[in-house]
Specification:
Blueprint (H helix, E strand, L loop, with lengths): L4 H18 L4 E3 L2 E4 L9 E3 L1 E4 L3 H14 L3 E4 L15 E4 L6 E5 L4 E5 L4 H11 L7 E2 L12 H7 L15 E7 L5 E4 L5 H7 L8 E8 L1 E2 L2 E10 H13 L4 E6 L11 E9 L15 H13 L1 H14 L4 E3 L12 H9 L5 E11 L3 H15 L3 E8 L15 E11 L2 H20 L3 E2 L9 H7 L3 H11 L8 H10 L2
Parallel strand pairs: 4-6, 5-6
Antiparallel strand pairs: 1-2, 2-3, 7-8, 8-12, 9-13, 10-11, 10-12, 14-16, 14-17, 15-16, 15-19, 18-20, 18-21, 19-20
């Protein structure tokens, strides 16, 4: 949920204090260290050791040492990826969170160079601090929504996107990056220098080497006004196209999740953001969901799904007309302990969590996709706790693009019980959704799980075997690995 500048600065500061102690949830074991992803908790992985990276020289030293010992390397920042891309069993896990400095800020061109372990709150906060006396200010163009404490390196590794109405994935925002390869060499990558590696590493899930720095293109900071209404799914595409024509810059459609309702996935809260004049004030105090409000709303989604849409819509409608900054309005509230909170309040003996999946449909087939998807979810009796629709422009730059066309992105947060039966049900649900997407000419996002069948992987990413061949050409000893990589190598037999 969006925060105003004052609340964001306060929250980002407090989170920075607690993040190092809670972020890894590492537990010493006889045969290594047990780590897991933050959101789903479905990737418990025994790594050999965790090494904190604090400098470029230290990073190069660690990689060369791993080479000498024949060790494998995995890379983790914020640990929000749910498909095991950041963990490799028995690997040396590089913790990038101490690589968190802003290295250079070019005010003339709107470029910022940062170490790849920096997370979005620190970057946004740092830019605001450096420009507090500047008349003309720069800010980030886009970031993933839902959680803020993702590293910039991780964002590039997954080629993330936000809710910009006319934006490609984050590759569009990357001017350059520096990567340390399997030999410990530092390589600068741009669209002209090492262009092949540039295309491979963005959306390459950390398999080509570790990013040391990233240079991002910024956008002029501007004020935007939120416009909110509740509309039917059938009206969404014409409405959002009209918003684009009218100059709106961000927006999404948060759909009804009550599977027992006739309006299930057929209506939603339609929120968009229109630029306004520089002299329009941004109030210090505005309506927003705080930490406690978010947890209460989440609990309601579990316990009384007939009421959750009206509650959520009511909150959003009450924020209609509020004004925000174009960068800080993209920040949100994320509660690391949400799983524990839900299990305790519901008296669950079996742990559960939310698993995200992101499916893509041609825009003209969005309604067809949604109506068919809701029947899949009903058939499997799989519950959505939160769902939204965004727009994305075609990615024509990376080697392994997920945005192969101008898609409608449909995001599902599905409830998964942490049992063999619960995980099997979730996997079957996702597979049916992927089949539906492919049938309509769409695809799916690789980041969130590794439950897709071989035929589904090849249908969505026919170039993946070639991608792995390029990975081995750059890293012949396969120093950089993950359980996600090992899974797909075995699945595709490459």
């Amino acid at each position: 949920m969006e925060m105003n500048r004052r609340h964001f600065l306060k929250a980002s500061g407090s989170l920075a204090l607690v993040s190092p102690t809670v972020s890894f949830h590492a537990k010493d074991k006889q045969k290594g260290i047990l780590v897991n992803d933050v959101h789903s908790g479905l990737n418990p992985t025994q790594v050999r050791q965790i090494e904190t990276v604090e400098s470029l020289r230290g990073l190069q030293k660690l990689i060369r040492r791993a080479n000498r010992k024949g060790a494998k390397i995995s890379i983790a920042g914020g640990r929000h990826a749910m498909g095991a891309q950041q963990f490799g069993t028995d690997s040396m896990l590089l913790d990038t969170r101490s690589l968190d400095r802003m290295l250079n800020f070019d005010r003339e061109r709107g470029l910022v160079k940062v170490e790849a372990g920096i997370q979005w709150p620190a970057l946004v906060n740092g830019l605001l601090k450096d420009q507090r006396n500047d008349k003309k200010q720069w800010g980030i163009r886009q970031k993933q929504t839902g959680a803020d404490r993702l590293s910039i390196g991780g964002a590039l590794a997954a080629n993330v996107h936000g809710r910009g109405l006319k934006m490609k994935p984050i590759v569009e925002d990357v001017e350059a990056f520096e990567l340390v390869n399997a030999k410990g060499e530092l390589l600068t990558c741009t669209r002209k220098e090492n262009p092949g590696l540039f295309k491979l590493a963005i959306g390459g899930y950390g398999l080509l080497g570790m990013l040391y720095s990233v240079t991002l293109r910024l956008a002029p900071r501007q004020k935007v006004r939120r416009v909110v209404e509740v509309i039917e799914l059938k009206d969404f595409l014409p409405a959002i196209e009209k918003r684009v024509e009218d100059g709106f810059t961000y927006g999404d459609f948060q759909y009804d999740i009550d599977e027992k309702s006739d309006t299930f996935m057929r209506r939603g809260v339609f929120s968009c953001y229109r630029p306004v004049a520089d002299d329009v004030p941004v109030p210090e105090e505005q309506k927003e969901l705080n930490h406690e409000d978010w947890l209460k709303m989440l609990l309601l989604a579990y316990t009384d799904r007939s009421k959750i849409f009206d509650a959520y819509a009511g909150y959003y409608l009450n924020t209609n007309g509020q004004t925000y900054w174009s960068d800080t309005h993209q920040m949100g509230v994320y509660v690391d302990e949400y799983r524990k909170y839900i299990d305790q309040n519901l008296g669950r003996k079996t742990p559960s969590s939310l698993m995200i999946s992101e499916l893509y449909a041609p825009r003209e087939k969005l309604t067809e996709f949604m109506l068919a998807a809701r029947e899949i979810l009903r058939r499997h009796k799989t519950l959505i706790i939160y769902g939204t629709i965004r727009l994305i422009e075609k990615d024509d730059e990376t080697f392994l693009p997920w945005a192969k066309n101008r898609y409608a992105c449909v995001i599902f947060n599905l409830l998964v019980e942490h049992t063999d039966t619960g995980k099997k049900k979730a996997a079957n649900t996702f597979r049916d959704l992927i089949d539906l997407s492919h049938k309509l000419g769409g695809s799916y996002y690789l980041t969130y799980h590794k439950w897709a069948r071989k035929d589904q992987v090849l249908a969505g990413y026919p170039q993946m075997p070639e991608f792995f061949r390029h990975k081995r050409a750059h890293d012949p000893d396969e120093v950089f690995q993950s359980d996600w990589y090992r899974h797909h190598v075995k699945l595709l037999d490459v």
